[in-house]
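Most newcomers find our protein records easier to grasp once they have seen one. There is nothing in a record beyond a sequence line and a structure line. Getting from the letters to the tokens is the skill we practise here. An example says more than a description, so a record of this kind follows:
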Amino acid sequence: MNDGWDTAPPNDFGPISGPSLSYAFNLAKVPDQGEDSDPIVRDGPDLGLIGVFDGMGGAGGTVYETPDGPRTGAYLASRVARDVVERRMLDLLEPDWNLNGEAAAEDIRRSVKKALEERLTELKAPPSRLRSKLLRALPTTMAVIALQRKRRADSTWSGHVFWAGDSRAYAFTPSGAHQLSTDDLRDPGDAMANLHHDSVVSNAMSADTEFRVGYRRVELKAPFLLVCATDGCFGYVPTPMHFEHLVLKALAGARSTQAWSEAVQAEISAVTGDDAAMAVMGVGADLAEFQTLLAPRLATLEEDFIGPLDQLRRAVQEAERTLQAARQHEQNQTAALWGRYQPDYERHLRPPVTDGEPRDDADADVDGPEAEDVRTPVDGHADGVEERPDEAEQPEADAPTTESSLDRPAEVV
């Protein structure tokens, strides 16, 4: 029975009736421990489905014992949600029936919530004693695009976009990249602000909290590219423009869909600090046709956005190098000038020089009473004070005496 879905992957070339090419990848920072699930990629002559799920490691860092070994709640959540959403969407998305997106969003929310609760029960985890608004049981984000052709042999498609959290859905057309999902953040901003302001996710799927599934419907005219990506793909590039450029630049030099995927993975791996999962689907053109179709956009992107931005970044880097060199020069000159100033400045802080010890240059330059503010030794006593003889040894009253240096007023210097 034909349910509208093809089981074989699409070919890069040949007659274009529906989705024409696709690829997906899941890059784990730690092998076998990645908290993003493998993406969803399904297609048929008049249908398409892609999606990504990002287990939230910070909120879902609790470790559970499983038959496969210890796994974090984030790792488990993304995989549970992925399987449920794929199964429900394959049931709901039919070629001859217009999807009720709002009802589908509620169906997904209810189905995922139930599955996460059941999985948490199976894990038999003791209740956490920690109380924090940031902690979640089995939390994950989601971004999904479901495609339906409006009429057979027509180039107009309905894109049903579902999301929870900060994973993103995009459409790439000759006019540029267009974000289709909304970032669910506690302090939301635009896409640029969200790159540089690390706000807390305000809405995500989980077993122990209520959540919502966002929904938006868009009309798309083939040919176009669809992309779903976790934040490890787009969150570590300088701007949203750089993410579009990364995808199109890799496309321009690819000889096959697999080569395109590998090029994108290499670029993301070079900059990301997180797990990264991405699903791509092209509709209405083959690989070579997409390269031709999007070449003008790539040229405009490089000339009007990436070139100026990269030039500004290079200018900042050069200014930072100049500033660093100036700071180092300042430190060196300050040390040299202090070396000249220090000996005279610290002359009274140094221990006195004893006979036979060499004098430093600073002491050698000073003569006379200004060298040391001490009194001249008397009778060989180094402390400069004459010893008083005991009374028994004092001379008789009528004995002549000589004037002592202590009987004269001290010379003031």
